[in-house]
Specification:
heterodimer; A: 113 residues; mainly beta; six-stranded mixed β-sheet; 57% strand; globular; B: mainly beta
């Protein structure tokens, strides 16, 4: 498969807890992005981290990138019920990758009120 | 600013038919990409267009085609539909001209069911 891998496949937590999702990819990258998808809807961009960056923050989101291990993690702090969704990492390979993101299989996050 | 608009949102076809899906990108975005999402294969890249030119293509058979118009609107067509073509087809637009895709803005998708 050309897809990256994400774990866990599903994560169930209580409101207020932190949620951590991990992603691995296969080729060298230009950047790695995280997207969120509510059931059967379109994807919403959350955060982008470039290959020369190691950590990035946006609000309650923290993303790390380890290019030596070809892996990334997304941390959502103080989760809310509204964070319930599927989360996907998407890598952009180096070179002429016009529009082509390689998505992981996703993590289904359920946050219980 | 209006988001990416995809039509139709839902459609049902039978095997052997063809289908055309439409996508209007965010105003000012000239790059349009298409993705197929299925439970088994996940999200897979179909193709990308910029200024009416296809710049990149995924590993899909020739039954899948697309085009882009001078106003950046895009269409994709699937001919001789197969059951396995049932999927959510997502269109995304970007303002980035160069090869290193940044943030993609996705539409709500067109859900195709093939019977």
């Amino acid at each position: 498969s050309q897809q990256g891998e994400e774990d866990p496949q599903a994560l169930s937590i209580q409101e207020g807890e932190n949620a951590t999702m991990n992603c691995s990819y296969k080729t060298s990258i230009n950047n790695l992005q995280w997207y969120r998808q509510n059931s059967g809807r379109g994807l919403v961009h959350l955060i982008l981290i470039r290959s020369n960056e190691r950590e990035k923050h946006s609000g309650r989101l923290r993303v790390t990138l380890d290019t030596s291990k070809k892996s990334s993690s997304l941390l959502i702090t103080a989760s809310r019920a509204a964070d319930t969704a599927s989360y996907f990492c998407a890598s952009l390979a180096g070179g002429t990758s016009y529009g082509k993101l390689t998505f992981g299989q996703g993590t289904i996050l359920t946050v219980h009120p | 600013k209006a988001g990416v608009t995809q039509t139709p949102r839902y459609l049902i076809k039978t095997r052997g038919q063809q289908v055309t899906l439409s996508c209007s990108p965010i105003s000012g975005h000239r790059s349009v990409s298409w993705y197929q999402q299925t439970p088994g294969q996940g999200l897979q890249f179909l193709f990308e267009y910029f200024s009416e030119t296809q710049r990149n293509k995924g590993n899909f058979p020739g039954r899948f085609s697309g085009r882009q118009f001078s106003n950046s609107r895009s269409e994709m067509n699937v001919s001789t539909l197969e059951l396995g073509d049932s999927a959510l087809y997502l269109c995304a637009s970007s303002f980035i001209r160069g090869p290193n895709t940044g943030e993609l803005f996705f539409g709500e998708g067109s859900r195709l069911t093939v019977l």
